[in-house]
Sequence to fold (437 residues):
Amino acid sequence: MLLDPTTLLLGCAALMVCAALVASFIRWPVWAIGLYIAVQLWQARQNVRQSLAGSGVTLLPADVLTVCLLVAAFIMLIGNRGRRAPVLLLALLALTAFSLIRGFGLFGVQTAGNEARNVIQLLCVALFVAVLSPGRNLVRAFTLIWVLAACALSCLALLGWLSIGFGSSADRIMVDGVLTGTRPVSAAEAMIIGQAATILLCGHGPRRGRTLAWLLLVVVILTQHRTVWLASGVMITGWLLSRHRRTGSRAAALGVLGSLGTLYFVAASWGTADEVTSSLAASSEDDRTLMWRLEGWHALLPRLEGVPDWLLGLPFGSGYDRLVNGTFTAVSPHNFYLEVLLRLGLPGLVVLLLVYATAWRRVGVDGEHNLVLRLLICGQLVYMITYSLPPEQAVILGLLAACAQPRSARRPPTPQESPCPTEPRSSPASPARTARI
Fold:
């Protein structure tokens, strides 16, 4: 097949742009993270769908950035021989590639690639973050990006509520003759807002940071995403309990109870308590509730028929077709653990959980950033029960994967070093400190 000059010129220009992006990502990794988060959120808000001409493969803007980030990650790994690769993430990538190749042969490139897009983006971006030196500067940059994203999403949510109102129990309503969703932000976007609030609460910055955190939590409540409520509640409860050294465990417990009581009082004041109660009573019929999802999970598990399926998983492109309450559905399982089990098998699920387990074990609880990382672990583990982990959460997964590496894989600690290991408690005159000098 001969290429016309215009196509060849555009292809060369695209390669040059990608090369420039890779070089800039290596030189300024914080810019890479910020750009990816911005593009990912913009893409989700605009519901962007673009097709790659001539191949039939759906190509999204974030896909291009994902490839550039993956290339930049491998260049940094190869260029710095002293840098240890995040083995757990590489194992997940290998399992994903194996399942994707099997899907290509059985279902075609388009079907398998579209289904694997979320997992591929998640792991590639996480790998890029994991190969960076996870120093305090990177954590501060991540904090700034997350808080800015949360503020922008909160403003968009406020604009949406000004047009459709607060507290509607319906999923969609008619506004000026147009069917409009009642949730101006998705669960993935609400999760970013809740995580940003937790980060601000754990910080030791000025009082206005705490004020902003509580305002963001109000936005989370108004978003009406119950899974995000639970994840944010777990993170905030962990933050309150971590303050027992200064305020006493009893005060922390009272703070938790007071916060939950305040949330219920606010809901009752808005007249939404009855709506929440009725929604829970109808959970077996609502396709957005836990009972509906449990039935879907029970219908998907039998698809793993034999030992090879449990060890290798089903290839990408197999789909998630199932009958729930006599109704056919093909949406994702709404459970990232089950999704990984179905596509990557038991080894993939075990490796994913090892990332969180080893990061939790190696992250101390004495520092500001260490507490934030542990709370983010709890939030993500709760969120993945009823949702797939969105690609923007790859930044947090990458930080955790970096912390999950053996301590021998990292350089000796410096004042700007990673917050992952607990800081030494020895005095300035201790033999260990003297020998290090």
About this structure: The first helix runs from residue 5 to 27. The longest strand covers residues 172-175. The chain has a mean pLDDT of 78. Strands lie at 50-52, 57-59, 172-175, 178-181, 322-324, 327-329.
